[in-house]
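ERR on first pass: missing label on line 2. Operator R.T. fixed the label and resubmitted. Corrected input:
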Amino acid sequence: MIDLSLPLGLRDPTPDHSAHLAELSARLHRVFASFGYRRLLLPTLERLAVVERGLSGAALEGVLKFVEPGSGEVVAIRPDITPQIARLWAARPDALPDPARLCYDGPVLRVREARAGRPREVHQAGVELLGAGGPEADAEALALLRRSLDRAGLGAAVVEVGHARFAGEVLAAARLPRAARAAAEEALSRKDEAALAAAARGGRGRPAARDALPAQAGLYGEGALGRARTLARGIPGAARALAELEAALSLSRRRVREVEVDLGEVRGLGYYTGITFAGYAPGAGAAVASGGRYDALLARFGRPGPAIGFAVDLEYATQALERRDGARGVRPRRAPRR
Amino acid sequence: MIDLSLPLGLRDPTPDHSAHLAELSARLHRVFASFGYRRLLLPTLERLAVVERGLSGAALEGVLKFVEPGSGEVVAIRPDITPQIARLWAARPDALPDPARLCYDGPVLRVREARAGRPREVHQAGVELLGAGGPEADAEALALLRRSLDRAGLGAAVVEVGHARFAGEVLAAARLPRAARAAAEEALSRKDEAALAAAARGGRGRPAARDALPAQAGLYGEGALGRARTLARGIPGAARALAELEAALSLSRRRVREVEVDLGEVRGLGYYTGITFAGYAPGAGAAVASGGRYDALLARFGRPGPAIGFAVDLEYATQALERRDGARGVRPRRAPRR
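pass 2 clean. output:
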């Protein structure tokens, strides 16, 4: 008996599913091109030193790395394409203008601890706007995300926006002891108002800042921006973050019908420094797209500049499209499994 | 100073060049789809045991392999996509009908000894027709190759055909001692008629077979098929190979304007067992496409069947397109290098 299995954790999409992923990618690239974004092909492997420069500690654990037998170098199968683009931006200023509008398509490999260290291959299509900061660039990225979802057939997807610094500024202003800070972050991820109130009691910040902490649990859904404005009054850093978000939303209003807001996130923000956004579609197991502003990453590679981008997870986006078509009574596109 | 280099041997295409590769791939896939070929996405990694089953010894030396830290398995970055498709054909009979028309797109990684063991990443787009043998399938593949080159803008490319068994049958019929056989193979690759004649003198085959050997050096260019017919008269295996090639050419005549013939190749045939073909375009450093019939590969994975396919080397094909546009006085598409 021949063992035809794949390396642990990997899998083959069926031909139907592959075709859907490829069609989706082609549709997205037509939208990216219509916004002036140019396609990059990037290598499968990077030196580990480059990958380390682009990712934070937690993300680095998910990198599949090995010694390349020919050279003895420690190399990694790329876990993320954005740091590759940051490397290229710094390495090839002759080829990449400032600002540069770039897009890409391809697999990345991530080892997920939740699945006993097995790699998962994720097919992405995404964009990066390098060298452009401020609300206009933020609004462009938001509008491109909305158009991409609409043209991909995911008009029903909701765009959720946040800001990478807001919750952190509120937490910092409360001046919690280290243990209480960890507890507060944990409580924030669960949106647990009572636990946040308990953590706030040990803070040394001004009362307004400590009062803001439990209110953070409610900074999503309808009216969240108004509540955030009230809450941020006494916390200048949070107020600045909120102003950035509101400026971007105001500029994109004509092109982005409606967004949901979630300002309560403090974890898993990676290299983001400004507005963040994600797309959620009915039927998909996770966000179909995610991204944000990362104004500190490019400098790590030696050519500083503001930047913003997002990636569509082709797998989850296709899942949403296939479920939508199935629900509508269209012949289910997924091939039957034995 | 930050080291922004890539792992040894890899490189970044410029954005212009990337865009050309991506556009070319999109154009090819439209042709593949018009012939009914469906797109597959295949994983970057395979277990080494699977790769070994699909490649011969020489090709295996070019595989980048390592121990996957999570599982301890020896895995390889795919050096070729055809064996992956052979694996899938055997592993998922529920998802792949017989016959199956499949196409793909993506990078493969090959370590080239000529470049001191450095890996080269090759972007390919290709097709496989699995479960279909005989001249009709051969003619379909030839017609699809021709149409692909034409629609890609490579109408000036020449299609060269051969047969994986022809030269080997002639060599076998000459019944050379082992050392003379090696010398003859070497002479054949140089098309060195004198050396072939010298090698033939030591053969124990019938005179007709020994006489055929030096004539092999001239089995290319105009009139090659006629000369091959004469030469194969006393060698049944060679005559059968030639008949297969002529049947395919006859069936594809309406759709494939003209081909060049080269029946003198005996090396580097990999898993091919029947007709072989390649596309050569002005301005490209090597073949822009290559492929052939491989009727023994699928059985190695446990689901036997005839098969034929080809891959376009997107890098060389784009090189040809860029040189063509440059020569025509069109703005050169390649970005300036510092």
